[in-house]
Here is the input.
Amino acid sequence: MQAYLLEIIIVISAIALLLTEAFITPKRKYRIAILAILPLTIVFVLNVFAVAPSEYNKEMTQFYAWDNIARFFKGFTLLATILTLIFTLDYRRTLSKFTTRPGTEEGTGEYYSLILFACAGMMWMASAKDLVSLFVSLELTTITTYILVAYMRRNVGSLEAGVKYLILGALSTGFLVYGIAWVYGATGTTDLALIQEKITDQNQNYLLFGVALILISIAFKVGAVPMHLWIPDVYQGAPTPTTAFLSVASKASGFAIAIRVLQPFMESGNQVLSSKFTTIIAVLAGATLLVGNLAALRQSNFKRLLAYSSIANAGFLLLPLAAWNSDSALASQHAIAFYLGVYLLMTFAAFFVLAIIYRNTGSDEISAFEGLGRRHPTLAFMTTIIMGALAGLPLTGGFWGKFFAFESAIRGGLWVPVIIGFIGAAAGFYYYFQIIRAMYWRESLSTRQIRIRPISYWTVKGLTIAIVLLGFFPKPMEWLIGEKPTSAEKAPQKNQDQPVAVNTAN
Amino acid sequence: MSLIFVILPLLAALSILFNYNPQKVARGTAAVTLFFALGSVFCWDASVWGLSFEMLSKPSIHLALDFYDGMSVVMVILTALVLFAATWSGKCPEQNQRLWYSSILLIGAGAFGAFLATDIFFFYAFHELALIPTFLMIGNLGTGQRKEAAWKITIYLAFGSIILLGGLIALVVASGSENWLFSELFKADIPAESQKWIALLLILGFGILVSLFPFHTWAAPAYSCAPAPVAMLHAGVLKKFGLYGLFRLYPMVPEGMQAWVGWIIVLLLGNILWVGFVTINQRRLDSMLGNSSVMHMGYIFLAFAALVSSGGLEANPLAQPAAIVLMFAHGVTIALLFMLTDIIRRKTGTVELSELGGLAKAAPNLAFLFGLAGMASIGLPGLANFAGEVMVFLAGFHGFDGQNFSAIQIATILALWGVVISAVYMLRAFRKTFQGPAVENTSSEKVKDLGKFCQIPAAILAISLLVVGLYPKSLLSLINKDTSAPKAAQSEN
Here is the structure.
């Protein structure tokens, strides 16, 4: 099956669900979510067997790349979307409080199909090899997420978040279009593969400017420093499933396009461009790490803490991007993909815990966790593991992500951002462990039992087990990311080298 | 085979979570590992102990465990001894038996793993595994200001570990090695300029873990608040990981370490003299012991500084064995002292020196053992610490031409005063606790002597102090094997 059909299936099922929504009674709108999980799961399976579009299909091959990175990011987006929908199933009561008629689920049906549209856009972003298709898919995603953020329209916080997101998003789109225009003007093409061939000493300054503008828009998408200001407010105001979706899927697709856009420039052999981009991204990474981690120290609200943690994680993810290398033992793409894979597990687990706590205590302050160790020991234990993983404790999955990020940054010799990263990681211990401290070392005022819905409970349990298993045995993630074609070509070369070395030794 | 040391405590900890009798499982496991550890003395060079299993292909990381050299053997024996004492002594709070014993076993498993690992990654990761239950135990089951102490030790050690991780990654990257195995890394030749920065990261990272001055402030409060087994295991065993690591990784960055040797000497004198004077001023038995353990780290650092400033393992063959003997001796001594202090706390309800007194009458065995351990800690001849300290001082003067004092010799002379300082605080503590009249309104006169279950582990620790003290060659013969073993392995390749 040709790969682009995956997106088409998702879009068609999203439209179908939108139509079906009209025929479902207001009390049962959640059925849309269950119906939506179905095509996602099917596509998730099909994603494994998909093949590249045939060469004769010029219209598609021009716009659509299909490689291991694309496959990984598509699978990633699908999994994140499925988890978001599961999340929404348990969150729908809060959601329906602030929509058309509070109490019924009227007006919540579109929420689920909008998530599917965003998912299709993100899947396409993973394959975008042309700046035009990149722009279109990015806009499909961004416009849907504007609605998803402001979905609780009777809630002031959600509306405020929506407006903020809209304004800054529009600004970053402006940067993106402007940047694309510069790149097109300098090279006469929007195809990223062709751009690589057309880099010359004459146009490199224009390209530098153009790509720097595109990078600003990507920074908005992933929440890196100059464009991070929207994150705390939007994360706090938006419905929690949207927040989780934004912080995982949206960030990941930002990195997917960052890899696609930067690849031609980093691997063109043009030293001026690649060293300048390394500097730019290293500065972004350092600043992001500093702002994210230091601002997180002072937070007393768990949702806001997660927002800053998401900024901080963007900083860690930028490290391998800055230290671009595609042919060492661990390529940058792999480090990023690995980090994101673990990040998905940890962040969703953290958001599920947040929702559970919110439903039981009505608060998402850190103080709401007080006494959880006594009130629900299992949940407290799982939260401990999740927080440990977020902090990067060894033998949890989170450690490997940070480890690979640091490794490739040190390989790239980026010492200043690495040192900032160390300080950030140490600060991370402080603010993530605040949760653990609240759970075990403080007494709660209420002794009411914590009640957890079975779906949330089992999802958190599954995610936690996956985090621990990955911590002890990270190889499965390596299998998922797959061999990069270049490293596969290089492997036989190494084998050729080795016998030579042995011969000389003998 | 060497996986036994890690897997046994891990399985035991798991089975405790599944409701087996925690005390019996933990004590049994500790006894079995002690048996294996003592047994390994006779056959540690056999290839049966080795194990290597690739966990990750790029970068290539192996779960590799082996007795790399004599240093590993000694540290494993130390761990087994202290783990045994920690599980057999000590009384855990009734409801928390599962947390208590499973944490102790996890710490033990982590320590065994760290000392046995021959892959630099697991060398690091196992130590971290041991730290997490340490934090939890101090925070949940400690005494006094346990929350602040746990918070402090968590932040300090987490920060130290992160710096250390940076140093280790930089080391591997600079060596250009394909995998993370010690055997590969030792072959690499790292350029001097990068050695310098790697060495700085390693000294800082390991230094924070070993409570090198001025990063030592976490240690004393943590030990005085920690439950006794945790204090024993951390002060006795886990803290040695930092020094073990410095000695282990030194051959990879000898020139880099050389660049910082002046700083090391200044800081270790801070450990010995500054912290020594701080220790004299302590009014509580447990915080005095915590500070004294920080202070004694200075001597082992002195051995390291002697090794570094003389320029290599061949140039100063005394330094590394000296450090290992002292690490072993100090580990056993401090474990015994913390154990006895906890017994005193349980029997009298206080560890304030001003409220203690005259315990020797009621509890002669306790007094004898405490006296023995205290004397050992001062460095009385015939006990293990004496052997270690003498060797350290000799290492400091190794190659001395009789005229020109270099920094390390001056440091050694100053460090000798540390012996006097430790005599002052240790003898005073002994006098105040065990001699003189009992303080009024306390229960000192009615205290019962050591119970049977506390006598066995205490006696084992005391005997090992005596054995090593009277016949240091028992350890040295193990250590001196090491210079030949890796070379033999290399020449085979």
Remarks:
- The CA atoms of residues 192 and 381 of chain B lie 42 Å apart.
- Residues 275-493 of chain B form one domain.
- The interface with chain A takes residues 55-60, 124-125, 128-129, 132, 136, 139-140, 147, 151, 154-155, 158-159, 162-163, 165-166, 169-170, 173, 178 of chain B (CB under 8 Å).
- The radius of gyration of chain B is 21 Å.
